[in-house]
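Task card 7
Instruction: Convert sequence to structure tokens.
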Amino acid sequence: MTSEDGLRFSPPAMPEYWTLQVAARVPSVVGKLRAALREARVLFWESPDGILSAQVRADKVEALCVNVERWLDTDDLDACHARLYQGEVEDASRKVLDAEPLRRILARRWGQELLEMISEDRLRVRFQPIVSLESPQRIHGHEVLLRGVARGDDLVFPDRLLDAALEVDLLLELDLAARRNALARAASCLPDGAIFINARREALTSTDDFVAQTLAAVQEHGLHPSRVVIEVSRGVPALNSMSIVRTLDRCRAEGFSIAIDDFTEGPSYFEMLHRIRPEYVKFERRLVHSVDRDSFKQEALDAIVGECLGLKVATIALGVETRAEWEWLKLRGVTLGQGYLFGIPAEIPVHEVETGLPRPEASA
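Output:
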């Protein structure tokens, strides 16, 4: 094997150590991996066929995993195949190339940590404002976003938490804990405005449990259901299943509002829109990015906005980052916006947005 400075040698035999071997074919990902390992001060080698191998003591495995996740995003992790095992480095390229994605290995490592986060109340939230596009200084409400706190006090983002929950079958427990935590914090920080909380599709399949749990949390913290918006990640045909539609109907009957997240173009989405009749539709971020310069996205959003206007469904543009995007969306009749242009997710919610955007003229 070859060290990072190009010298060939055999790695030391350290059977009490753990070995991480990764095959990444994309040069940019390989570069990120090298940077992550160097930052973690980990001894690593690179074989002629591009396999990166690192060895750490058992008590440093978690820190190594955290560091790799800090440098690589979800797509990067899916592009890597990896092995994590106890013992010395093996010269087994085929085993690595045929191994599972690095994302799954890291998710399993998070399983026990996730269980402890839930039991030790180490879930946190961040608030991001949702504003009127006609008057961005006017806040309509806040989305309450999930975060976890790792042992080293690093924040863990939702994608990592959900990956871990799926790997170790804790999805329903995580969803319930996140909902309770979001409502508790919102009750203490948000005296008015809509409260958007996320719900996994899997949790919605049990109508009685979901409705009873959410109502109990709302009542415990002195909130009224009319302020709470159940935001459901899209999924066709999942959101068209009878059990989920029944749950959403029950939620609405109890006074909650419904929002469909990540909405995009297509007949199946319009069918879902007519079937569920949500109070809000939130556009997929991909459609909003550079919409002012992309005729395909403009056509797709015009079709969605037109359909929503006919059904009296409020529209929310997610990921608004530029003034040009805001102006185009406002002129096309999009109701609300959320994104860095209006405010980043924050531990303490903002009650007034200062964007530098012009205020609407006062009527005479």
